[in-house]
What does this fold into?
Amino acid sequence: MDFLRDFGVQPTLLAGQIINFLIILVLLRIFFYKPISKVLNERRQKIAEGLKNAEEIEVKLAQTEEKTAKLLEKAGADAKEYLHQAKDEAQKITDAANIEAKKRIEDALVEAKLQIENQKEEMKRQLEKETLILVSAVVKKLLGRSLKAEERKQLTQKSFTEITQKANE
Amino acid sequence: MAEAHVALAAEKLFSIGPFPVTNSVLTTWIVTIILIAFAFLATKNAALAPKGLQNIAEIAFEALEGLVSSIAGDKTKVFLPIIVAFFFFILFGNYFGLLPGVGSIGFYEKSKLSAEVESKVSNGPNESKAESPDERSTINEIRTFVPYLRSMNSDLNTTMALAIVSTVATHFLAIRYLGLFGYIGKFISLNPIFLFVGLLELVGEVTKIFSLSFRLFGNIFAGEVLLTTAITKVFAVLAPVPFYFLEILVGFVQALIFSMLTLVFMVILTQKSEHGAH
It folds into this structure.
């Protein structure tokens, strides 16, 4: 091992350098290896988590989209259904209103007819009465006496019939 | 002026007690401080969103981690801190040695060689008297240049220390993974053929220290010599630039080779031997 002396190898220097390197080994482990590997591991975990979350979010998004599509479809169907129902209802209401209106018109017609009939009747009576008064007056003037009840009735009836016939012509 | 050259051994600057401080030891300390400071600053405010130095540290770390895990597999967590320390220490040391001033700022010292020659001249009575004053004056001028800082891996002490730590750590991990008997069984076997192979492997473990240390030392020392030669003998401006690029590459490659060899040795030695059951 004499050749080592030519290279300046001395036990003290060798030992010194070994100790120095061991110190470096320990210090680098504390100040370099541990914090860096810790940070790197943390970051790896974070990234893995992030990717996992992103995947989950994507799945959820797909689910939500599916749900939305389903809901929209259902809403469309419902809307159609409601529209249909509403149309039916409207039809029913319209029909009912039409029937009601027809009925009312018919009722009004009947009433009007009745009224006209009544008026006619009234007029008839009025006419009878006036005719009777007129005839009585004429007979009184012509005969100088009042008509007997039997005559009055006959006359009135006769003239009324005539008038009615004339009026109907 | 004395010719600039790089001495094989690191020069002693001063001593702290019994411990001689050579220029490469001084460099090692500076590199250590820089390396630890870098590590500390890079991870001081380690955040999930990295900033500044942390980015660089993370890129380097991840690259190394990928490389190590591709070789070590599930043992990465145990091996990586050691490999990280080897790689960055050697890399920082190699690159620090390339900085201007390292190996070029220093002082002149009367070398042992000149002192020896001087004494020989003064003691040699057979020398002709006419030549001797001349010779003496030239000899007096032979001084060696001692740089304050010397690339740390161009000193065999440093690289051998690294190689010893690497080998000892490898064997330590082997015992940890295989148990003491499994570890011994790797080298000693009742089967004569495997016994012979085991003994060869034992020798190989010793030579590993030498191959690791001399490879790193040789490369970096050669680089120092190459750069010094290019600067002093060719031309100080522009001429050394390509060599600097070469040395940047060599500095990285040697750091990588040392740490990867350490890793491979660790992986091989911590594997259960296939003939262990025999």
